UniProtKB/TrEMBL annotation, chains A, B, C, D:
Record organism: Faecalibaculum rodentium
Name recorded for this polypeptide: 6-phospho-beta-glucosidase
Listed EC numbers: 3.2.1.86
Pfam families: Glyco_hydro_4, Glyco_hydro_4C
Site (Increases basicity of active site Tyr): E116
């Protein structure tokens, strides 16, 4: 980091109208002594203008209440915002929550896993997001070539890898709150505090494992596994994931703790059954539940007297996300050498993957960027899972950049949550058609599908499409 | 190979009572000028004694008819046979066809793929076979330390890798007829003969891809893909595999031809549907069909006038298997440098896998053993599939050697044909109980399962078990 | 290649005033039916203006004589030339031949190998060249983002790798005439013609090995080794390399033919002795001999009647260089799928090196660029040599980009031709001071060295420096 | 470890007549509460019988003084000793100190580095030792298949790798005192104690680097580098290594501390000059100095009143060697999970080398053997050095097993301390002839050399040979 320290830091947030923004503001306010922010630019698109104004006003009130002299700019002009930025954070959702509903409902309507970052849904979220982030990177090359890109747009792993591989942009860190939640929630199970324990993570975004040591250097991974077994639940699993237990024999063999999302793979059957139940319930899929929470949050943000992050935000599911982002910014800026779990270049941290791919691992973050903490070779089983997921991610990224249907079929074949064959192909076709507006790279393919009469089976999705979403 | 060439070659066949033996004899008779066989020992176990005698007499008649002075010994004493052997071939089936029926029917009874070398069935075949082959290797270390082991017992890849990794025995070559069938059946589709084309294979047993060049050095892989598309079928696919087409977009991207068994992965849904149909049909599962053919073959072999391989054997499914074995023996012995597709040590042929694992690749076989022909890096999608399968194989091998349930659950999780969760666990448990006799390494686990009341659901399998099989 | 084929091809040659240019022109004229050239821009710098005009006029005469309507532009304005180029070739020499004389004489004055592309001299040639090529690439990103860069500026391997790694430019092919010379000169030794044999190369620039097969597919590498042994010389070794024989026992073990330059490593002692003798002789070092030849060539080029490449050019040492370049251009443009040995991305061709480094290997060149032909794992000894050279190259590239003395010392330590210690450090210091003008990245270091009183010991080099070279 | 804990531990020491044995005894006496030794077998060969008796009596006195009831057996019958051993330690020197004198003097007589474990000397020590250790392993397979082999015979890395690779024996740990010396001597330089700091090592035997952290987890590698710079010496360097400083710029770039022996590579010139001086001095080469010390030690050991390790042993150069061995035995036996730096299987600890090669790294040693602590990717320069040294080791091991001169020439070419060419070949030839008695695998080659008139130039070595050594 060679920020010109004289005149304060300029931070730009793409997707600034997100309900997460107040958390981000709080994180920056709390670290103002480490990162002297001069100006914040919240950027959004036309459709998000109203939300941007609500959350932007909220942000201004928060900074005013903090007593720091920081300008909060709201804009729909991304290029204006990026000019001379020191940090760019990305938290946008291409297609908004309506797109997430499609990602969930279309696979589920065929009895397949429908989920935001796993299975067919995660693949399509990447297809929509990667072209946009690559555009942002092109702007950054021109307008703020020394800035760091702190990405917490999901699927964070694929998006970050695409930035490095196709955008040729190295100053990027991908963030996720799943490791933070584990590190904060697990220690209690063995009578410890987060400060007592040392964590080491390795894997991919939403697909990592960790090992843990206590303050004397003794490994306590096995103690945690046993404690979770006794408790009958896994405290570190994010609230939004159904907590079916892992098989103890597998945990004993791997001698690591899988992340919450790993249930989709180690207990595929039960997770699918749960998703199908949820979709048919009153509450609806996760996207539909989140939409409800968001609407409530924006009602709160409208309150002209509210000048601090409301408690309800924590329930949103993305708790600690922005906190991790702010800590990353502070560590980069103030050379703190903090342990942060990030998606970054492998560099041998996981010897089972090439050095130049993106992995989510424990790093020490300082002014020269994150330095990976080596994790070592994985057990055979986990190595295989990791390698097939990385290959799947690369096929998705290729499809996102080229619009090649073969690459997309490859990703569908590789993805453990998808059963390759005609039903999967139908799911793929419906998702292509449903997301047409955000998949210009697939335009000729989608045109052909529509001519072939492909239509979406799920009613709620059809309704969204009729509404122009 | 440092065979003492003065006094002829001694060949030992473990599982000598197999219906394949006449093909093996034919192959050796045809290559007698290259490999001067002195004596052949056909070894089998008590249960196979009757078949051994039938097929042994048949073998003697074949050699007599050939005019060569070769002694054919029949024995149940493996150690007596192995003494000073030059070549040991293995073609045994632990648990006979009854075990295969269990491998197929138990998974299918829960709607999962039931197949001899893929899915849960293939995993259990490996669990039964690996301890036996390792015993054979221990005997070989003592009794014939210079011999080559030519394995065509399935699952050939895992069995061969276990010999190298756990048996520390390097002089082993794993064989399969799938590449041979492809090389003999495909060329016609583009108006060529097998002699015109050069093939290069890489992958794992029943999980490889190939590329093809014509006599001018021009690559014709794409021509073959197009020809198959026009034909509406894949000529190189073994007769026993349902010929659902691969998706053309995937073939175009990978620019290779997958093997017939790859359908289980690229078209998982359709292959499963086909297996379920077949199991419910009159003909029954593959094992049940094969049993019928075998009975017919042994009836033929009893004919004291039959002194050559009968035509019907070709229909058995394993056509060319023994031929490939004999060509391997001849190439090792006579330093022929023939192109043979074998399971052998990777040695960089596929840079996406470590050098010391077993792969099935094109090799040149001469007196120093097979030398791999480098294939180069695979496309991302195929690399991922290959890596997850290799990891699965390694988990299976570990489970076979240690009896560790965690390793077995890992293999179930990794296997693309198995949906991880309680149903899969039930399938695993039933297979453990059904194969109890051949899984001594899992004895305590199986004991516990029986105490917990695990019983087999499929009626035909239950009946086999009641019959003591 | 997506050249707009309507209006002909634009080719730009950086270092257009080189004595090689007529060969390049000849190659393009001979392939005009494959590559319809519209205009050629020969670019040089102020110091090269006179030569540019001489050779430019010569080029024009050659094209006129060919009867094709091609415009030859001469310019000192690189950016004007690059605009909308289809192919950019680079053949410049930063610091001209005077720099090469320094690269040779300074190490030799301390009894160390002094050579253009090996040892300390090769390192410094890279330090001077890499910043310039990276500047060119930045211009290309802006002015001709679809063009291919065909580099034959030495050290071709490091320069090409720097373009890929630091320039983030993938459409680059590095060229060298050493493989071409081998393929043209060796076959005769076993009574064959170049057309009869198939060659496969792998390694790094000036550091590769090859294997050879005859028209029946039989490997003849060993036949060639034996023939060279009988002949007492290696026909494929470039004329400028002292032909001390390799040790037969090493060749027999590696079963490959090393390139001519490999003598500097396998017979380090004798090569050094020869270089020291040569430097003390009348003819002087290679650079001094080349300078003489070049002066003679330019005298010839001045002849207004000369309109074809003169015979004398072949003796220049770089024979076939431009021919390989033209064939590469033709293969890229006309999708010829020709076998060309190029420096390109490894992609698993040599599994002993990471996939993303630059290697010099056999490729098939078509419209999508070069596709590597897998070579397979090297024997242990050659693998080690290759890996340490690749590491050395990477340290040099890092030093070239950052001006870090530690990285330069690392390169000196790794280089097998340099004995690490104080004498090597003195050589390094003198080279830094002697090349000051072309090493702006080391400006502060050089400033300090001069203050510390570092001066060049070799008299001829001191004289060149006094003349302002 | 599945030692039958009822009846105490049996330890066998091959090379039991070594002057180190008292240190080994002391280490076992100090750890008797952790490792209940029942009997110790000191094994030696006929030539070592006298020393064996002297040191054996000394050992008995030490155990008597300790008050523990442990039998010390002295024998020349290795097989008798190995029967049912729990631990086998190896500390023998094939050819005794006379062989070491040859290893040092022959290269030095041609101006090349002559050293026990580096350069040509280290190569020949491996050639003599590997066949012997492989014989021991064959005995162990038969007589004590569950025992651990704790090797501290040099060159420890190659000897240990040969045991794993050619002996197919996994229960082996290679030991060296260099890391121990560093961990005990360095901390003081920054005002710390060994207990305060955490060390992590990675590399090969006598060729590793380390990083260090303080009690708060802060990395202090750079602090140590600076402290050594201020001190003008490196406290962790073994007493027998000339302490020329590393170049600070290289240390700053690599951000690691090289081991003492690394000076032979980073400061090759000065180390060679020092060795040449030493050889011409009164004291003579290291071997000659060591011989003097040993003679003095055996005089002490003869004292029937001496029943504890004498102080003078510490000066012998191998201080802490046996201590590390005893700690390894205790950790294996008592499952202590101690941090010990060992030569063991890489398993991804250093991702720049294959998983199955031997490396010297930080491990945690418990009942299941050593588990490597991942170190992560090395900087480019150190990666290259490491890879070329590993390749050299593998060529040496191959030569030791096969007697192939090509492999030996490859090792000479790869070794950075040897300049390939005729002088090196002469050094190789003289070493072959001088060590004839211990190199049966090279018998035909040596016979030819003698017929060709190869004789040793160095007078002292010639004298040793005339004496029959």
């Amino acid at each position: 980091m060679t920020v010109k320290q004289t005149d304060g830091v300029k931070i730009v947030t793409i997707g600034g109208g997100s309900s997460y923004t107040p958390e981000l503001m709080e994180g920056l306010i709390n670290r103002y002594d480490q990162v002297p922010v001069r100006e914040i630019w919240l950027v959004d698109i036309e459709e998000g203008k109203e939300k941007l104004e609500i959350v932007g006003e909220m942000a201004r009130r928060m900074w005013n209440a903090s007593g720091h002299d920081v300008q909060v700019h709201l804009t729909l002009d991304r290029r204006e915002a990026l000019k001379d930025a020191d940090f760019v954070t990305t938290q946008f959702r291409v297609g908004l929550l309506a797109a997430r509903i499609k990602d969930e409902r279309i696979p589920l309507s065929y009895g397949m896993a429908g989920q935001e970052t796993n299975g067919a849904g995660g693949i399509f979220k990447a297809l929509r997001t990667i072209p946009v982030i690559l555009d942002i990177v092109e702007d950054m090359k021109e307008l703020c070539p020394d800035a760091w890109l702190v990405n917490f747009t999901n699927p964070s792993g694929m998006v970050t890898e695409a930035v490095m591989k196709y955008g040729h942009w190295d100053k990027v860190a991908g963030l996720c709150n799943v490791p933070v939640i584990a590190m904060m929630s697990e220690p209690e199970a063995i009578g410890k505090t987060p400060e007592d324990l040392t964590y080491r993570f390795a894997g991919l975004n939403h697909f990592h494992w960790h090992r843990v040591w206590d303050e004397t250097g003794r490994e306590v991974t096995r103690d945690l596994i046993e404690a979770f077994d006794r408790l009958g639940r896994t405290p570190g699993t994010p609230a939004n994931i159904f907590d079916v237990p892992f098989y103890r024999e597998q945990l004993d063999l791997m001698d690591m703790i899988p992340c919450g999302y790993h249930r989709y793979y180690y207990r595929q059957q039960e997770m699918l059954e749960h998703m199908l139940e949820e979709a048919q319930s009153q509450a609806g899929t996760r996207a539909e539940q989140v939409k409800q929470t968001e609407d409530e949050l924006f009602e709160l943000y409208k309150d002209p007297n509210l000048d601090h992050k409301p408690e309800q935000l924590a329930r949103r599911g993305g708790a600690h996300y922005s906190d991790a982002a702010c800590e990353t910014i502070a560590s980069l800026y103030a050379d703190k050498n903090t342990h942060i779990v990030l998606t970054t270049r492998n560099n041998g941290a996981i010897p089972d993957l090439p050095e130049d791919v993106a992995v989510e691992v424990s790093t020490l973050v300082g002014k020269d960027g994150p330095k990976v903490i080596p994790f070592g070779a994985l057990p055979a089983g986990e190595r295989g899972l990791l390698q097939v997921m990385k290959a799947m991610e690369q096929c998705v990224e290729e499809a996102a950049v080229t619009g090649n249907v073969g690459a997309l079929l490859e990703a569908f074949t590789l993805n453990p949550l998808i059963t390759a064959g005609e039903t999967a192909r139908q799911v793929m076709n419906e998702l292509l058609v449903a997301h047409e507006r955000y998949l210009p790279q697939f335009a000729p393919v989608i045109e052909q599908l529509k001519q072939d009469g492909v239509t979406v089976k799920d009613e709620r999705v059809r309704r969204l499409m009729e509404e122009g979403q």
